[in-house]
Design goal:
It is elongated, with a radius of gyration of 19 Å. The chain has helices spanning 3-12, 26-33, 46-49, 64-73, 81-88, 93-118; strands at 16-18, 38-41, 56-59. It has a 3-stranded parallel sheet, sandwiched between helices. The protein starts with a helix and ends with a helix. The protein is mainly alpha-helical and 119 residues long.
Length: 119
């Protein structure tokens, strides 16, 4: 599926259900980049990107009862697509590139500082 088709599908959905336990989980972040709220299991990587009532909702346990409770109360219309998209930019490729470059520059500066003191 192409990125354009995926983005179109995301834009028509009320939300993305992400019931798994992942270290990060790129699919929910892609959905958020398209402005879609995410319903996720409250563990793992979802703790890094889901902000209740802003980018989505959590369910506490991986059980039908726990998920059903959240789904019954979920209203995708209460979310701001623009706010979700804006929040998702912190996980963008550009943001990553900027942050990793800054980190590496700082490491090089520290290495040079230590090397000067060793001589």
């Amino acid at each position: 599926m192409s990125d354009a088709v995926l983005e179109e599908e995301f834009s028509r959905a009320e939300g993305l259900l992400f019931p798994g336990l992942e270290d990060f989980g790129i699919t929910p972040v892609e959905a958020m980049a398209a402005g879609m709220p995410v319903i996720a299991y409250k563990a793992g990587g979802s703790l890094d990107y889901i902000r209740p009532n802003v980018t989505g909702e959590f369910f506490e346990r991986q059980t039908v009862t726990s998920l059903a409770k959240v789904l019954q109360q979920f209203n995708g219309a209460k979310y701001s697509s623009a706010a979700i998209k804006a929040y998702a930019t912190k996980f963008s490729k550009e943001k990553f590139t900027t942050n990793i470059k800054s980190f590496l520059v700082e490491c090089i500066k520290q290495h040079r500082s230590v090397a000067k003191n060793v001589k």
